[in-house]
Specification:
By secondary structure, the chain is an alpha/beta fold. Helix content is 28%, strand content 24%. It is built from eleven helices and 19 strands.
Length: 379
């Protein structure tokens, strides 16, 4: 049986005030095309369908359209809720959608939904485990010792009563120890949400969501598919993909990834203002890309962001990398006994804040303003 594995759609997401809805619509169309061409039997969606617990009507409509297209192609769909989702909203109409081959994880009530499929090799049991915290599991198993996320996961899996002679697939949304994170994910302090990889040892394949970089563990048998789109500039060099998993006989597993090319990529540019203003200096960059631009000029450029946006309409972020920004100095308040003039005091403050001395033009302007203030002519 052949599965497609995706996760962390984050439908409705905005990045630096830019809506990602059109990008998400485009990439979901790509996914439908790929799974159709690959002739997959089912698609596993491992949580964070939406970016917010209360998604917009546009985001809900987009996901509904996606599910309809998959169902029309007779592709079974397995969906769980992630930490960004409302479990109740994902579970809504779950009993009804089963008739269309769309299986939505119910709210966790101490048991995990199991759907059994059959192929030429026998039974495949697909377990739908929504995002859980230890407190959720303790509520249903107060007699169990649960100190952390690993304990909680071990208790949950123990009560699944797996058929070890059959193939078992788990769809889950958790942080497995050792996975590489990116800036677009929610980070818990001290790694308190870690689940040890050994908790999943009895599964033939674990389709994970939550981590945005695609990566495998235990020889790819436990895998994060990653987001279908880049959601932070820390992912600008990542290659997004859809994971295709083919389960044959017990412990016989084939995995491949198919790249997902976005409509607008997310890239970084570094250079001086004059260099960056000329796109010909960056032939690898499409001016329509979502961009993070780092200017190397020592002096701030007036209205730089607006002027750059005229060349790069999807400019999201701009910053400086220069002497001033690379060094951080603390400001110490000292008592002036009259030995320093106001101009000298201001010059020292400027040097402390900017890690460089004032230019001659700046010094002349400062003296002019001081003279105006002293004469009561400042406006």
């Amino acid at each position: 049986m052949k599965f497609a594995h995706i996760s962390d759609l984050h439908l409705g997401k905005r990045i630096h005030q830019f809506s990602m809805m059109e990008e998400q619509k485009y990439i979901l169309e790509k996914i439908v095309t790929i799974v159709t061409e690959e002739k997959v039997d089912a698609i596993l969606i491992a949580g964070d369908v939406y970016d917010k617990i209360y998604p917009s009507s546009e985001a809900v409509a987009l996901f509904d359209s996606f599910l309809v297209k998959l169902a029309e192609r007779d592709i079974k769909v397995f969906v769980i809720s992630g930490n960004h989702d409302s479990p109740e909203r994902i579970a809504f109409l779950g009993q009804l959608t089963k008739k269309a081959g769309v299986y939505l994880s119910p709210v966790y009530q101490g048991e995990v939904e199991k759907i059994t499929l059959k192929d030429d090799y026998g039974c495949i049991n697909v377990y739908l485990l929504p995002f859980i915290k230890p407190v959720h599991v303790r509520h249903f198993y107060p007699e169990e010792t649960i100190h952390n996320y690993t304990d909680a996961m071990n208790v949950v899996i123990k009560h699944m009563n797996l058929e070890m002679d059959e193939r078992n697939v788990l769809v889950a949304h958790q942080f497995v120890t050792g996975a590489m994170r990116s800036e677009s994910e929610e980070i818990s302090v001290g790694g308190l949400d870690n689940v040890e990889v050994t908790a999943f040892k009895d599964f033939d394949y674990v389709a994970l969501g939550h981590i945005h970089r695609p990566q495998g563990m235990c020889g790819e048998r436990i895998r994060y598919s990653g987001t279908p789109l880049k959601y932070s500039f820390s992912e600008s060099e990542d290659c997004k993909s859809i994971t295709i998993v083919e389960l044959k006989d017990k412990e016989e597993l084939d995995i491949k990834t198919i790249p997902l090319e976005p409509f607008h990529d997310m890239r970084k540019i570094r250079g001086t203002f004059l260099e960056v203003m000329n796109p010909l200096n960056f032939p690898e960059i499409d001016t329509e890309n979502y961009l993070h631009i780092t200017l190397l000029d020592e002096q701030d450029i007036p209205e730089a962001f607006g002027r750059l946006s005229g060349v790069y309409p999807n400019l999201m972020q701009m910053e400086y990398d220069n002497t001033r920004t690379r060094q951080k100095r603390s400001i110490q308040v000292v008592k002036n006994e009259g030995s320093l003039s106001p101009a000298e005091l201001f010059s020292k403050l400027y040097e402390t804040m900017n890690n460089q001395s004032m230019s001659e033009i700046q010094q002349e302007y400062l003296m002019k303003k001081i003279e105006e203030i002293w004469k009561g002519e400042a406006k």
